[in-house]
Amino acid sequence: MARSPHILIVDDDREIRDLVGKVLEREGFRISRVENGTVMRQTLATSAIDLVVLDIMMPGDDGLALCRELRGTRNQTPIIMLTAKGDEIDRIVGLEMGADDYLAKPFHSRELIARIKAVLRRTDQAPRLEAVVESRFLDFEGWRLDIGNRELLSPEGVLVSLSSGEYDLLVALAKRPQCTLTRDMLLDLTRGRASIVFDRSIDIQISRLRRKLGEDPKNPSIIKTVWGGGYLFAANVTES
């Protein structure tokens, strides 16, 4: 029997924790509820968590700080941010911190469930994305993408932290150098078809990848924008 995904809900509002927990339990998820970052850290250290539903607006360590902390320790557990703020800039900041998705309050329970399933499906699809990779390493411009360990090494040998979405996107691009990939194609390769039509996460992750690769945002040389088309991985790639 397949193991039911374990979801960690982090929110200082007890009513929200209980409401979201009951909704997800009815969908068959296993649920843990915590009220702050301290208990979140303890739970992540002692339990196998498949996804974190993380509120931004909390006293003490807020959701953005906790998300940044997790990604700084290279913890790649998928994160969906919840917040009362609906402005797009807040969404972008959350994704910039390494969150996998973002949902503004108030939200419909079915939308939260759909987003959780989409992120979990994307995570589950990562091995299938790797299955088409015959080589252990992809090398470009001095960078080394270690497929076996899901790691990116800089030309100086420094390990660069990537979220699961960033890693999958970089593999999809690097395996297809000199090919224009539309956003729809990249969504298919990395997320499946559960994305929102106006979701800008691909663009945001491309920006984050460029920054981590040390690219000039105004004149990138590795990941180029094809206006009206999508993105092209312009670097020469060797496999080993």
Structure description:
The protein has 240 residues and is of the alpha/beta class. It folds into two domains: 6-125, Response regulator (Rossmann fold, 3-Layer(aba) Sandwich), CATH 3.40.50.2300; 132-239, Winged helix-like DNA-binding domain superfamily/Winged helix DNA-binding domain (Arc Repressor Mutant, subunit A). Helices cover 40% and strands 20% of the residues. It is built from eight helices and 13 strands. The chain has helices spanning 14-26, 37-46, 63-72, 88-96, 109-131, 164-174, 183-190, 201-212; strands spanning 6-10, 30-34, 51-55, 79-83, 101-104, 137-140, 143-146, 151-153, 159-160, 180-181, 223-226, 230-233, 238-239. The strands form three sheets. The protein has a five-stranded parallel sheet with strand order 2-1-3-4-5, with helices on both faces. Strands 9-8-7-6-13 form a five-stranded antiparallel sheet, with helices on one face. Strand 3, helix 3 (63-72) and strand 4 form a beta-alpha-beta unit. Helix 5 packs across helix 6 (164-174) and helix 6 (164-174) packs across helix 8. The longest helix is centred in the middle third of the chain and has 23 residues, at 109-131.
